[in-house]
Amino acid sequence: MIPMSPDVRRLVGDWAEQVDNRSLLYEKYALPKAWGVEDGGKLDNAGRWSVLRIVTRGSDLLRNDAERLRREAGGRNVQLHVRQRKERDAVVAEKMAKVAQFDRNFTQAANANATRFLADLSKSYSGRVVTFEATLGARLLVNLAGGVIENAGIALDRCFGLPFIPGSAVKGIARAQALWEIHDAQGEDKARLLRLAMLLFGYGANDLKPGGDFGWAGGAAAASRIADEIGNQDYKGCACFLPAYPTTPPELVVDMVNPHYPEYYRGRRAKAEDNESPIPNYFPAVEAGSSFGFAVLLNRFPKCDGVSADDLLNQARQWLERAVTRKGVGAKTAAGYGWFELGRKTAPSTQPATAGASSPPATIAAPTPPSSPADAFIAKWRGKLATTGNFAAALPELAALADDAELKRAFEAVIPENERRRFRKNNPYWQSFTSGRHGEAGKKILARLGLKLT
């Protein structure tokens, strides 16, 4: 059972089966690997089951695990200690599957409240706030490094148990976008953007030095000159970047990375060979398709000649919109996670929770269905082949594309560019591409494309 005090156990159940808040369930009632297991054994699936318990279809997946373990335990040549371990694990999986159902009406009310909050902000702080909605075009991983389970965190609201993007993350991606644009700008535009960024985000003395953020982006001399104009070498930014909450029902799914060569990556082997055992790592993710509301609020008007509130707000919005659509939010953005499309792409499923509340903003029509098998393949697998865990399912589908031109288009759309630049035999990515039960499909793809590993 889950470790907890007797009085809490009486309230929530031995396995926290009465808890319906994902945040509480994941942060306070995670299943330890070694708890209540005799002879110093471990529950190898503890981390995975703790993740499964909070995702949208988690109970079904846990019951499937329990059924599979019982089938394996009943095999003809299973040793006694293995049978006992699998039967024990099946019982644990079955217990973990018994979780109070998350109330969909509660979720919809939270989405409506988030939508109404954006409208109320615009009314209450007219001229001091910008808001917009954006829809996930890929899975979102946020706060992955936090949480009880190592490298399997997620930011969940304490009250609603719904995923959200912390304000610190929203500000961080906007600031990073601003720094790159300032660095690439020229002439007067560079000085203008640098001034706006320093006012919006704030700065410390170290930021102004040649090795500091603003010193690197706009030049240390220019940054110091603007700081003198503002009148302070340490300045608190005048913009508040608020947390982004979902405005349509989000779906939580379980994702994983599956290193095929753990010994090689740990430096214990000189070569990556196919006789190692993969060790999958599981973590929760927000599925593509849900919309989030973003807001930037000016908490005060800076005293700086030639800069208006509209200048600051418009620039903050541009930087944030370009950050979420081009760079992405959260972890693994280089692998295709965390990018957004502007606007709410799906029809709203609820009305505001209370009478007289503001109506949700107008929606954008849903994208048209894929027009070809290659388009369908790209839509399904874009951003999901940065690692090799999905090769077994994806490569046979890719090889099934009959037209060579469409095969090339799909290949270039889903295979990461950085891996295509490292097209070598000793690259573990391409070793996995042409080996295993999907290896023939991988070899067929490369042959049709006229590609040969060097």
Tell me about this structure:
The protein has three domains: 6-96, no CATH class; 104-365, no CATH class; 373-449, no CATH class. Helices cover 45% and strands 9% of the residues. The protein contains 19 helices and nine strands. The protein starts with 5 loop residues before the first helix and ends in a 5-residue tail after the last helix.
Query: How many individual β-strands?
Result: 9
Compute the average pLDDT.
85
Count of discrete domains: 3
Radius of gyration, in Å, reads 26 Å
Number of discrete helical segments: 19
- What's the story with the biggest beta sheet? 5 strands, antiparallel
Helix- and strand-based class? alpha+beta
Share of residues in strands? 5-15%
Global outline: globular
How far the N terminus sits from the C terminus, by CA atoms, comes to 53 Å
Query: Percent helix among the residues?
Result: 40-55%
Give the SSE string: HHHHHHEHHEHHHEEEEHEEHEHHHHHH
Uncertain parts: 347-370
